[in-house]
Amino acid sequence: MGEDRPVSALEGVASQVTPLGIGLPYMAGLPADLYRSSVVDFVEVTVETLSRPRQHGTSVAIDLVTDKLEHARDTCGALPIVVHGVELSIGSAAGWNEAYLDLLDDFQQRWPFLWHSEHLGFQTMADHHGKIVEIGVPLPLPPTEEAAALVTARSRSIRERYGVPFLLENPAHYLGHLPADATIGDDIGLMRAILAGSGCGQLLDLHNVYCNAVNHRFNAFDAIDRMPLERAVELHVAGGSWHDGFWTDAHDSRVPETVWELLEYTLPRAPNVKGVVFEMLEPHAVRLGPDVIEAELSRAQSIWECCRAGRP
Q: By the 8 A CB rule, do 190 and 184 touch?
């Protein structure tokens, strides 16, 4: 897993991957023509959507479904792909999801990806019998030295396992006043400590920043200024909705105007960003339709091109 040491450079990212542009998640329910349009430069694949669980002794394995995989490859054509995982649960104290890593091993052999990412949080825990159970919703890690050390070691091992950049996504969360160590401070300090120690990059989700700013009443642009932007490799933009008094990261609507402003603000300050992904969940993407999705992608493309050209 490598020696414990701070990693000052963004290892395996800036030198290996050229900028891609604007990406869209693979969604089987969308027309294939959308992935061949001029506004999609790469595809973000969530491998779990191409798989099914299987009982394996006392545990559960996850297998790729060949028909789903081949349909995805036909749809994406020659577009480069990156992977965005949802089931690793990298921060679970009782252990992460080994079945997901086995799935990713198989997927990398069949369809190589340029980088992969996972959410910084946990969604499983051990019950009083020691059995691992699903919580049902991703939860944030407390900003403590213990949490930072746990995820730093796991992130470094994943980066070395696949030989491509590994990114951690900053989560949207709805809990305040988590226990914290003064040496870490808050969720931004936690991410900074993990990235510095692991050599990994960040998937900076701007809608998650916006969610947290709205729900916890802070300035999103001030938060961006505190982040290790030299570590950001991928950016997410997305939409959300109100639920029980919280603005939620529902991926069910167009991108809020403030999130577009955050993208314009962040891109010039993040020198190693290789791509921007517009996130939607498939049922909402099908409901809104390809014209709306293409309009959002076009706006992202315009901001990307302006920032890369050095124009405000």
A: yes
Classify domain 21-308 by CATH number: 3.20.20.150
Write down the pLDDT at residue 10: 61
Amino acid at 212: N
Burial 44-75 (b: 16+ CB within 10 A, else e): bbbbbebbeeeeeeeeeebebeeeebeebeeb
Can you say how many angstroms the Cα of residue 298 is from the centroid of all Cα atoms in its chain?
A: 21
pLDDT of residue 196: 96
Q: Please state, as a whole number, how many other Cβ atoms lie within 10 Å of the Cβ of residue 138.
A: 18
Kindly list the domain boundaries of the chain, sorted by start residue: 21-308
pLDDT at 137: 75
Amino acid identity, position 4:
D
Whether the CB-CB separation of 171 and 137 falls below 8 Å is answered with no
Maximum C-alpha span of the chain:
59
Cβ 273 vs Cβ 233: under 8 Å: yes
